[in-house]
Amino acid sequence: MIAPPWRASYGIDAPSVLRLLGVLAVGYLAAALVVALFQHMRPCVLLLVIGVVLTAQFGLFLHATRRGKFQVWAQLLDDLDLRGDERLLDMGCGRGAVLLAAARRLPAGCAVGLDLWRAVDHSYAGPAATERNAVAENVAERIQLRTGDMTRMPFPDGAFDVVVSSLAIHRIQTVEGRAAAVREAVRVLRPGGRLVIVDIGRTREYRTALAASGATALAGRPLGWQMWWGGPWMPTRALTATAPG
Predict the structure, then answer these.
(1) pLDDT class of 118 with cuts at 50, 70, 90
(2) d(CA 177, CA 224)
(3) Checking phi first, is residue 195 left (phi over 0); if not, alpha (psi -120 to 50) or beta?
(4) For the chain, which terminal residue's Cβ has fewer other Cβ atoms within 10 angstroms, N or C?
(5) Exposure of 9 by Cβ count < 10 A (0-12 exposed, 13-18 middle, 19+ buried)?
(6) Taking the model in full, what pTM does it have?
(7) How many CB atoms lie within 10 A of CB 232?
(8) Mean pLDDT over residues 179-184, rounded?
(9) Distances from the Cα of 228 to the Cαs of 23, 57, 161, 163, 173, in angstroms?
(10) Do 86 and 142 touch, CB atoms closer than 8 A?
């Protein structure tokens, strides 16, 4: 999938940040125009440069949330080479961008989405939005939605073949909480099950927690400009691992 199908609505990641970038970009460009009218060229150029940079940041952020993350996750899911009968968990599934992309690859399996359904970091309004998207994507019969905390997940040990998480674990405020979420991801994986975490920063922290949990085949890599949240100073990285056998 190259971009989200228009029949579904996946919202905007961190909408308040995107809104702020847009307001600042317009403000600086407008200020540059006003100053230019009074022929103060040096401050005008400075304001114009800042406005252009902010506009570029806005564009990169919008691309990442509307197109880039879908392209990146399509490749990550393809790399898993799923058989199609796996049981997969998406930690912090939101409106289901990753959950439903996975469900399309599981004609005989099941994709389970876990979330606390808060609108602080993502423009979604609860599980009903995810359910509507699942119907729109024709995968409603392949998904299950659960309300729960990533640090204390309501699933038994070894319940899943694959666990994924996209831009979710960093929302946990404490180091201990993030480590607990990573340990939970390993706990609910069957022996040899696979884990893919995509997040902004923190992946070294997650890697330490995974190693302490006995996970193997740990590998991390940057995901490139497609998931730059405003610029190269806000990149996204992928961390993959295998549950201990």
Answers:
(1) confident
(2) 27
(3) beta
(4) C
(5) middle
(6) 0.90
(7) 10
(8) 98
(9) 19, 9, 30, 23, 22
(10) no
